[in-house]
Amino acid sequence: MAPQAEAEAQAQDSQDTAQIRVGDRTLDLPVIQGTEGEMAVDIGALRKETGYITMDPGFGNTGACRSAITFIDGEKGILRYRGYRIEDLAEQSTFLETAWLLIHGELPTKTELDDFVEDVTKHTMLNESFRKFMDALPRDAHPMPMCAATVGALTTFYQQPESEESIRQSIIRLIAKMPTIAAYAYKHSLGQPFIYPRNDFDYSSNLIHMMFATPCAPYEVDPVVAKAMDALFILHADHEQNCSTSTVRLVGSSMANLYASISAGISALWGSLHGGANQKVVEMFEAIERGGGDPEAYIARAKDPDDPTRLMGFGHRVYKNYDPRAKYLKEACRQVLDRLDVSDKLLEIAQGLEEITLRDPYFVDRKLYPNVDFYSGVIYRALGIPVDAFTVMFAIGRLPGWIAQWLEMRHDPDFRIGRPRQVYTGANERDYVGMDAR
Ligand code: CMC
Q1: pTM of the predicted model as reported, rounded to 2 decimal places
Q2: Would 115 be classed as within a structural domain?
Q3: How many CB atoms lie within 10 A of CB 366?
Q4: Does 310 sit in the ligand 1 pocket, CB within 6 Å?
Q5: Is 116 helix (H, G, I), strand (E, B) or coil?
């Protein structure tokens, strides 16, 4: 059963209706109930019946789709993929198994997983032309636009007309090639030779090897690092209708192909209010460290309404409680640093900052807690990932979620091109004025 059909079958159609009064018209609107009791008013008839539209900048109250992939309860700090707790998946699953779960809706059988892993492993190489393609970009290029450009360019190599089979192949290629692209982007920034993927490594070990091995010396992947990386990917794998996922859906709704849609998602993720926050968090910790390690001055700036500074890695549109990913990562951070025998002053700064904010009425009243990006950067640093590449790691992790959401959108019986409306506030009709008269 296609994921959307499954969601339809599970969701109860509520008998309730909502009423809206616009001028002298009262409209009965259907109410939709999700499988976890979430309620929505279906305003589909509003414009046709009344001529009015709704206004919701930032879409804080707008549901754009029904989805059976990820459930978040922001008040309780719950996150589940296809019903499975992310904490359990991070502990017990692998990234590729979780990717299968997100994309197909169920955990794979052993045969399904073996076949999937083999398929992914055999498609990790990039066409050699990409070496020239990436080489043409400046040495100091940020790896996120490099990845977005390369993923977009994959479509020029795989031009088959869209079919179920070509989409299946694109999914395998994207998941397989993203680590290779990420590692190539990093090697390019160092001016080092690219390291080819290895089929005898698991997914995360292969990425680490491609990033850190060189042709001149043997390199051993630390299994602790590989396991931590895999768990990080799982925690990032989906997060329902966030900015980049909504971008992937919107671009895909025009019938743009998967590569083009994912490339747009990578660009959306790069922004500092979204995935790019993980880089900004560590830069913020470093700035605090350079200033002597006391975070109070930074916190004061973040609280000042006349200062645009924000506490990076804090706050979330959906979570009004501790982000469960941050809760998991805080503990993982301590464990990874211990196991790698690394001490990092930045972890102390992070913990100090968190303690202050949890007592500060500004953050308490606004329900601002650490989000996924608050501790992930400290782990990435301990694993040896350069700061510039943090958001690329997020993108590798988020890829299966983007793919699952794109597929669900394309199978949705309510599928339509995404096209928000607006309230026009510009000039009324006026006559053109020639240059001489201006
Ligand atoms: N530091 C200081 N004040 C904040 C912060 C922050 N990080 N986040 C929100 N606020 C304040 C904001 O100024 C506003 O105050 P007031 O009511 O006095 O005007 C109030 O809290 C509500 O904020 P908002 O801007 O309406 O919240 P939002 O839902 O539009 O924004 C957010 C969510 C994540 C963009 C925002 O919290 C933020 O900018 N955080 C820092 C960037 C960050 O860490 N982003 C990563 C998000 S998690 C990873 C991902 O999924 O992308």
Answers
A1: 0.93
A2: no
A3: 12
A4: yes
A5: helix
Which one is catalytic: 316, 323, 338, 411?
316
Indicate if ligand 1 lies below 6 Å from the C-beta of 324.
Answer: no
- Residue 265's region, left for phi above 0, alpha for psi from -120 to 50, else beta, is alpha
With a CB cutoff of 8 Å and minimum separation 6, the contacts of 226 are 202, 204, 205, 208
- The finding on whether 371 has its CB within 6 A of some atom of ligand 1 is yes
Number of domains the chain is built from: 1
Q: Which of 73-77, 313-317, 338-342 has the lowest mean pLDDT?
A: 338-342
Structure-derived torsion over alpha carbons of residues 200, 202, 208, 212, reported in degrees to the nearest 10: -10
Q: How far apart are CA 313 and CA 290, in angstroms?
A: 19
39, HSE (Cβ side, Cα atoms, 13 Å):
9
- Residue 37: CATH number of its domain: 2.20.28
Region 219-244 average pLDDT: 95
147-176: pLDDT as tens digits: 999 999 999 999 888 999 999 999 999 999
Separation of CA 66 from chain center: 19
Q: Is position 126 within any domain?
A: no
Helices (H), 26-142: 46-50, 86-92, 95-104, 110-121, 129-135
Q: Is residue 34 part of a domain?
A: yes
**Average pLDDT estimate for 262-283:** 95
pLDDT over 60 at 11, yes or no: no
CA atoms of 81 and 361, how far apart (whole Å): 33
The ligand 1 atom at the shortest distance from the C-alpha of residue 60 is 29
Of 211, 207, 251, 246, give the one whose Cα is nearest residue 227. 207
Residue 434 lies in a domain: no
User: Which domain range does residue 11 map to?
Assistant: 7-63
Q: How far apart are CA 421 and CA 54, in angstroms?
A: 9
